């Protein structure tokens, strides 16, 4: 088990990585799924043998409220159907923490429940916010869970210029689920999970 990293350089490196992903040209992405709430694209990840996913959709709410529902905190467990538990293990500053969370089984339990320990960081971006994270090798793995690993991930949320009560939410996700899994099952699950994330979030914000 590794010791906890120094948060400031890790946060800076994570933010720069997400900004780089956000500048990748449209031509490098291949569409993976489109629903009324979101479009999901993917490209081969530079971090591992799977894909980096990009999801994007317009959400009818202000930036701060949307990000409060996404980042570690009391809202996320209430609405994210994939997340089954969340504990804040360490808090460095108001916008920076280490959290442990578990996810439900997927695809008729072909994908068993997973546990993740993530460093999470939220910062300003243009007129909105960026909340991002990366997994750490920290804490004991609990029985009955496979420890997954999130390579640099994040959500950019900015108000629409013509309609500030709506926000453009763009996510970059690259999750290594680990364990003995067919990659095709993982890819199917990821596209659907990201599309469902938008529809669940929209429902939560309306309540």
UniProtKB/TrEMBL annotation:
One GO CC term, this protein: cytosol
GO biological process: cholesterol import; cholesterol transport involved in cholesterol storage; intracellular cholesterol transport
GO terms assigned for molecular function: cholesterol binding; cholesterol transfer activity
InterPro entries associated with the record: StarD4, START-like_dom_sf, START_lipid-bd_dom
Domain of life: Eukaryota
Domain START: 29-207
Pfam families: START
SMART domains (UniProt xref): START
Protein name: STAR4 protein
Species of provenance: Leucopsar rothschildi
Originating gene: Stard4
